[in-house]
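Subject line: Sequence and fold of a protein, written as structure tokens
Body of memo: The sequence and its backbone structure tokens, given next.
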Amino acid sequence: MKKLIFTMAILLVSTMAFAQIQKGDIQITGNIGYNKTRPYITQNIPYETSRVTISSKAGMFLSETISLGGILGYTGAKSQDLNIFNVGAYARFHKSIAENFYLYLEPSFSYGFSSRIYDTIDAKLSPGMTYFMSPKFALDLNSGMIGYSKNVSGIESYSFNLNLSNITLGASFYIR
């Protein structure tokens, strides 16, 4: 009887130690990003800018590898007196690489609005990785993106940034 209880306890503990994404899981994520541009010259005056981005996401897993969700975010740059609020949607496609470690690709679409500048529409494709610290808590790292942006006045911009100059760190909580 002692061996049976001991074996069941070991099995219970070992299954709790390995985090796996499951269909129906709800992921709540918060990200904080910081981007700083070193001094550059504008009108013969050195100029430095920095931006802080805060984003929250909530999504539901449709399968063990695919989730869909919504985005709420804020970007601010004090040096530019800039405040932008974002709402949008995203999908994540996960690939398990090792125990508790996933790579993901995240296409997203968002609408940004501000009282100071024109409203924008953004489409992005971002790579990232997730590491589960426990079955319900994970750390996320996103580095770079491929993006397209257009504001209401018709100005378009394209971006391709897959280096370490723009890193976003985040934490996710999973409701099972």
In short: Residues 4-17 have pLDDT under 50 and may be disordered. The chain has one helix and ten strands.
